[in-house]
Design brief:
homodimer; 10 helices; DNA-binding; 0% strand
DNA sequence: TTTATAATCTAATCTGGATTTAATTAATTT
DNA sequence: AAATTAATTAAATCCAGATTAGATTATAAA
């Protein structure tokens, strides 16, 4: 029997990136399957060969973005750096990831709400179940991501490196500021991702270390 | 000739509030004119008596939200408080506005992208022109809002109250954290708006005043 | 009361996509 | 070559929702 796929054509990841781009520019509602397809020189219909439907496509975009974010943050948390160093690195990598690929960053911020309205996603079939599961997993991962910041702050307080703050709220504030970068960042602006990251680190670490 | 409107029924503001609520829950795309109408016991068709179309309705929601925000922040900026006091008040009122009406706050954060895609908004007629103008005005007001934070920070640096930071980036960070509150805030959570505001103030002012 | 207009409604329209279907065109393996 | 599956496509289908049309009802002013 013959097997292996035809090694030509567009890759799943190309589509995800294209989708993220269009999504950033137009938002979910305004984004057409046709728009996405056009970016990779395909027909809307072709996308259905790679993804079950529009909802799954969006989900995949966001899943990938989050996974990448986790992948770069996780090792830092597990390292044996002290809390300040960890947080510094975490902010850096996160912000640089966002500015390095604003589309995905913006999608992560903006399109999450689209996830909630289960809308279509597979009427009847087991698709719907799969969708819900993956979405829930996404939210768990998202919590996990946030928790890494929270715990790092908490441990910094425990060791006396940081002053007393509410770790949860402080973490959310940091993430808010960081995510927001994806909203306003302009590659042609005054600062690059690295510089912005430095300023955020400065802002928050200075606050945490003040006595 | 007879004149004055019938003083019965639903008010424009009721609709705007309803729209903001639905918008927060479902996002623009998933929000149906019917959904909005239902909240105020009207038919989708009836909404067209109050708003030109869906785009204009959304625009109105966001315009109102921003105007309210400006209205409460502006007098603080113009007062003769010092920079720290101003910033403290500004954050407080802003965060409390957000937590007091999460729907509008969230709409302001999330639905802005929908504005950009001119999509429909009035095909041909002068409606389109009006839409563009109002949208541009909205963005100007938005800049103005941000500028108030930026300038307050800048003047605090000038007077030596604050340490040297980049006012633009610092302002964006603050706004990011504040806007983000609208995303995660839960009325049944551990803290109320007032308390959250205090923590944010603490975070940022501590940073600004550290030496 | 009569009249003009506001506020609504019900019943069409209309249309833009999303999704399906039924081919067609590669690659890959044996 | 033959067989099998991947990748695409053009052409149809389908339908939810926005918008429009044509009444109907309520109110205020004269």
């Amino acid at each position: 029997m013959a097997r292996k796929p035809a090694e030509q054509s567009v890759h799943r990841d190309d589509i995800l990136q294209a989708a993220a781009d269009v999504l950033q520019e137009q938002g979910y509602e305004a984004t057409t399957m046709k728009d996405i397809a056009a970016r990779v020189n395909l027909t809307a219909a072709s996308l259905y060969h790679h993804f079950k439907n529009k909802d799954f496509l969006l989900l995949a975009v966001i899943e990938r973005g989050l996974q990448e974010a986790i992948k770069i943050i996780e090792p830092i948390v597990q390292s044996d750096l002290n809390a300040s160093e960890k947080l510094t690195d975490m902010v850096h990598t996160h912000v640089e990831a966002i500015t390095g690929n604003p589309s995905v960053g913006a999608a992560l911020v903006f399109e999450i709400k689209s996830l909630v309205s289960v809308t279509t996603a597979g009427r009847g079939s087991g698709d719907e179940l799969e969708y819900i599961e993956r979405r829930d997993k996404f939210f768990k991962d998202r919590d996990y991501f946030e928790r890494m910041f929270r715990e790092t702050i908490k441990s910094g307080i425990a060791t006396g490196e940081f002053r007393q703050v509410d770790p949860a709220i402080f973490a959310k504030s940091m993430l808010g500021a960081q995510n927001w970068v994806g909203v306003w960042y302009n590659p042609n602006g005054r600062f690059n991702g690295q510089e912005i990251a430095e300023m955020l680190v400065d802002t928050f670490l200075t606050s945490l270390k003040a006595r």
